[in-house]
Amino acid sequence: MEPLMRELRRYWAQFENSDIAKAYRGEVDKFERWVREVGTRLIALRVREAAERGNPVARDYPEEYAKGLIRRGQGKVLVNMFAAYLVQRGLATQYWLIKNKFVAGGESIATWLRLLRKLGL
To answer: What would the pLDDT profile of 3-60 be if each residue is shown by its tens digit?
Structure first.
């Protein structure tokens, strides 16, 4: 999982400059620990689901597929994971985050929340 953390760290500055990170500055350090503990498991689960749906890259090269997810999403991956983290912790609702334009839409947050439920968190 260390390669995934390295990939996420590449986009950490983009995340920290986002409106949502600025609004919830006190949670960013906690979120960083959470990403190390839970976030990498979420990404691994997302890769596993893609492999089960028949994606050959996810099946044969799971680490590269995960890195590709992060590279394509860049800082938005962390923003959406942070939004799901806030919703899971009860610090915000999906509706409120979308209404106040902290995130573009609820679909990405819903994906991360679904994966959190699947992990039993």
So the answer is: 888 888 999 999 999 999 999 999 999 999 999 999 889 999 999 999 999 999 999 9
Q: Which two tokens stand for residue 45?
A: 């689960």
Both tokens of residue 30?
């906690």
**Looking at this protein, which amino acid is placed at residue 57?**
V
- Cβ neighbours, 10 Å, residue 28: 15
pLDDT in tens, 47-60: 999 999 999 999 99
3-state SS track over the chain: CHHHHHHHHHCHHHHHCCHHHHHCHHHHHHHHHHHHHHHHHHHHHHHHHHHHCCCHHHHHCHHHHHHHHHHHHCHHHHHHHHHHHHHHHCCCCHHHHHHCCCCCCHHHHHHHHHHHHHCCC
Residue 61, phi-psi category: left (phi > 0), alpha (psi -120 to 50), beta (remainder):
beta
